[in-house]
Amino acid sequence: MVPEVGQFALALALTLALVQGILPIVGAARGNTVWMSVARPAAQGQFVFVAIAFGCLTYAFVNNDFSVAYVATNSNSALPLQYRIAGVWGGHEGSLLLWTLMLGVWTMAVTVFSRHLPQDMVARVVGVMGLVSVGFLAFMLFTSNPFDRLLPAAPDGRDLNPLLQDPGMVLHPPMLYLGYVGFSVAFAFAIAALLAGRLDAAWARWSRPWTTVAWMFLTLGIALGSGWAYYELGWGGWWFWDPVENASFMPWLMGTALIHSLAVTEKRGSFRSWTVLLAIFAFAFSLLGTFLVRSGVLTSVHAFATDPRRGIFILAFLTIVIGGSLVLYAWRTSRIGLGGSFDLVSRESLLLTNNVFLVVATGSVMLGTLYPLVLDALGLGKLSVGPPYFESVFVPLMAPALFLMGVGPLARWKKASLPELAVRLRWAFAVSLVTALLLPFTLGHWSALVSFGLLLALWIVASSVVNLLERIKNAATGASAWARLRSTPRAYYGMLLAHIGVAVFVVGVTLVKGYETEKDVRMEQGDTTEVGGYTFRLAGVAEVPGPNYVATRATMEVTRNGKSVTTLHPEKRFYNVQQMPMTEAAIDPGFTRDLYVSLGDELNATTWLVRIYHKPFVDWIWGGCLVMALGGLFAATDRRYRIAARRQREEEYAAAARGPQPSPVR
Amino acid sequence: MNSIVAKVFALMLMLFAGSAAFGKEAAPAAEDPALEQRMAALTSELRCLVCQNQTIADSNAGLAVDLKNEVREKMKQGMSDREIIDFMVTRYGDFVLYRPPFKATTLFLWLGPLLLLAAGLLTLLFRLKRGRGAAETGLSEDEHARAAKLLAAGTETEKQ
Amino acid sequence: MTAETLPKTRLYLLPLGIFFALVVLLGVGLTLDPREVPSPLIGKPAPHFELPQLHDPAKTFSEQDMRGKVWLLNVWASWCVSCRAEHPVLLELAKSNAVSIYGLNYKDQRKDGVAWLQSLGNPYQISAFDLNGRVGIDYGVYGVPETYVIDKRGVIRYKQIGPVTSEILKEKILPLVNELNRG
Description:
The structure holds three protein chains of three kinds. Chain A is an alpha+beta fold. Helix content of chain A is 64%, strand content 11%. Chain A has 20 helices and ten strands. In chain A, the strands form two sheets. In chain A, strands 2, 3, 4, 5, 6 and 7 form a six-stranded antiparallel beta sheet that branches. In chain A, strands 1-10-9-8 form a four-stranded antiparallel beta sheet. In chain A, strand 4 and strand 5 form a beta hairpin. In chain A, helix 9 (201-232) runs antiparallel to helix 10. The longest helix of chain A is centred in the first third of the chain and has 32 residues, at 201-232. The termini of chain A are far apart. Chain B has six helices and one strand. Chain B has helices at residues 2-22, 33-43, 62-76, 81-92, 107-131, 141-159, and one strand at 27-28. In chain B, helix 2 (33-43) crosses helix 3 (62-76). Chain C has seven helices and seven strands. Chain C starts with a helix and ends with a helix. Mean pLDDT of chain C is 90; it is low at 1-5. Chains in contact: A-B, A-C, B-C. At the A-B interface, helix 13, helix 14, strand 1 and strand 10 of A face helix 1, strand 1, helix 5 and helix 6 of B. Strand 1 (517-524) of chain A pairs antiparallel with strand 1 (27-28) of chain B.
């Protein structure tokens, strides 16, 4: 009964999405207010029905309804509750429903936070998002129905893949999808502007917070995925340049370029057509990612059970949406106008240089990811492109961009001078250089690569400090430094934080690559070994049953200079249903290092293979991403976007415009 | 005589028990750690052909283990990294390498990013230099046309 | 002035053009199998091996024994499920005498391999016993079953990855064998 309700809800949602997608856009073109006003209620109704459908599927999972085929393939009665819920998005059909739900959440948000926008703009934005929803709902109903029945019902389910039975599974996909799908808002704004034939600084100001929030969620989603791989897969890797990982990284790079380009367009009204193109591309890469994961075109550890027939549907959808957008772009952009001009050296030009680097980086990642396919399609043989390629290409490409991160925020709008910038930054550079050259000696051996990485990170931090200090010193009035800091817009702090987050990330990557150590040893009970200055002693190994697995659990005592540091419990689990062995590494996280112990094979009744890692500063990788996301949050919640604050300001302006009022004569 | 034997036996017992409590320094898993380091570096560039995108270093699949043993054997025989890579490529093709070889078919792969960057930076430079002369009005073509019309109409009204 | 500095519409068609090429590429990609690894040994001499025979360990089998004949080398194992699917096709082929089939028992236990052939039938003139899979690696074997067509001069002319079906036999293997026999 419940699955049928869910399916019916999806069908209703599709109908509403069609209404939401067609009427408001046609209405906006014709100036028909009634049709335009359909946008909000249709969108909100669609969201309600998608939420109902999602609730029905969750219900089926939680109550172990194995008459639903999707539940039978992704769940099991012994599966703990939180993973039964996470199992809702553990497979292709359910993850599509999650995608659609997230789209509904964003659409809902747009309908709520858009009171200040002109009606035709809202109509078009919501309309475009409705059309995207139509695509996904149709995809589900016609090819990937999560509510398909399995008759007769299975006695029990095939269990969720043990790799996914983890807190990471609860957080990573929803966060990631919020990010991916969030770029549809920027996309919708871009299409709305093209449809209206009107693209001004106001459009950029409206788009910016939406893009920043989507970018923030995507940053968190990718960081979660990376952290999860790190502790789950058992060999301490955190990024493999796997096609699906790249599929999430490309929209992120584009989104970063878009945020910076929107800044130029908002402040100076310049390069609007480029910003629109970026907005289209960012979402295009989100859709491309959806295609790559589900079509079977590329091999990946993350790919869902792939089906070329589904691939055809997504490819057709991708062609229509992006192809249509690009046609609209080519047709309408000439009407939009160029915008203000600026000098060869200026903040605008530096931001655009940042764009060039980010877009080229995205292009390179795409080139590497798709190249094997290109050669195969042309009949030129089969090739693999893996981390060695991406690392050789991506890192040198990003280095200049990281350097410019220090220069850009200090450059003046419209016209800046290189010699002047050099003077302002000379101390920052000197301090960064000296510290970067000396620091490696304190951490171990000196290495040019480590020094270079540290130089870039320190440079970003030092120039941010210079930026902040200048702001305090250049107080227009005699206001105190503290007052000056308080009156600085939050978005400014957001920028500083995000940039510092990048620096933290770079430090983490550089130091872990430069100084991590590992040891592969044979251990019997009572044996000790030393890694990174810590002593590890295998106290014992025991068999421990879990809810749906049996684990061999080792107890590893860690000491340093005789003092106890921690006790770690690496496990080797054997899951009952899928008969899959899994290594659960034990990690002792720390601000300056991680201790990572992985239990290997049992060599004989008393001896075990153990792998122990000492990873300095590895948590700075994800810490940096968190700081970046925090910066995004600050930027998006800047006062100028907050609605209550806006109303207050509008009232203030209105009062000021009225002029001083004569006091009433008594 | 018996008491001496008993004492010796007791002593041995204590030593045995004592060593079990103290444990020993764990032996390295491999006989030759330097070789293992070389192994780790090389096997992380070779693809596991039966896996869904993993190196043979990270995989425990049957073929991956076989290939790792093969690589270790060849290293012990004194083959260089280059020779071992050639050995793999002869049997499995370029597909087995995660670092694509630099040949005619991969020219665009390896040089593409650099070319893209050069093209991007040059385009930007070109547009910036040209854009310097552009009007600062920020009006679109349409708006310019409208403005022109209005101004023309205004001048006519004035003339009247 | 503004109109002059704007690029023509043609330039704005560039992203569309690139996108279109991408779509075509992805569409073609849907018809391909990214996990199939073609053999670099086609057109090269079959790698040398000398292995004990499965049924008679005292005797050996080598590819050199087959010089002057066109033959099929089929890689199989008792633990391989797909091999069962192709086995009837091989038995038919053996009965028809169109070409001799020789087996490479890959990473198997001798008694399991013998028992498997006993119960399902033996299409192989001789099966070579490759216990540790070394010969398999030399031949670029990565998944069983795989079948090689080798000509009179000992050169590999074709590799079938996956089970041999009657269609593949009819369309690819038998025509090739006939051609090689004539030459």
